[in-house]
Amino acid sequence: MAAAAGGGAHGCPALPLANGRSIPVLGLGTSHQGGYSHDAVVHALQKCGIRHIDTAKRYGCESLLQKAIKESDVKQEDLWITTKLWHSDYGYENTKKACLESCERLGVEYLDLYLIHWPDAHVPGKSNREVRAETWRAMEELYERGLCRSIGVSNFLISHLEQLKEDCVITPHVNQVEYHPFQRPQELVDYCRSRDIVFEGYCPLAKGEALTHPSIIQLAKKYGRTPAQICIRWSIQNGIVTIPKSTKGERIQENCKVFDFTIAEDDVEILNGMHDGRHVSWDPSLIV
Fold first, then answer.
1. Predicted confidence band at 1 (pLDDT cuts at 50, 70, 90)?
2. Is 59 a catalytic residue?
3. pLDDT at 165 > cutoff 90
């Protein structure tokens, strides 16, 4: 992956997906519970060169994003928009309906990437595996129809991906999972790479926990960067598509300035060695 020079996300590198499309390695994450700011999204698109936005039905901000994208004057064909299917919409017919509703809320004719948000289906009388397979068949159909230009999953572990492999035809293009210095699931990353599934990491700052770690502060001083920039750059150097969240324009600007420096291999190893297995988000390991 070639790193682009200069500040901001202008010239942000992209990683190729198995279907020939390419996903920008840096995106802007959004969330619910105060995790959305109209002004921040407009700033990210207009001033920071962000062209990859990650959202979900569950976050409740798809229709707000439509307004921000319109205001920014960035065309859909220049953007990468990811949204996610929540478990209340799992199942064959529900999935197809939910996709159209997400497109409508976002004001788009297609999605660049549509993800199954969580491996637990919560459907009485049916196994998770059965519902995931039925849901994925609808995702495959949406992909074949061009409504979703890429399809994938989120929070899926090797066991979930193995079941999907046996039950379905198309391999997910992306698996989006928690990834930061304290949660570096290398076995899952390696498995995804072996099957041409691009690994995308959320919570790259460990919800702020990484920013106060002495080793990260020390590396930030060494490179003349902020702790957030160290975490994001480390994730990208490890080949992970990275989607930090922020509702502040100046933080988004800071998070984008990660393409004009490289962390030395020895220092990458220091960060790699900080994995302690902690989750700052959901833990899918108990879901069958």
1. very low
2. yes
3. yes
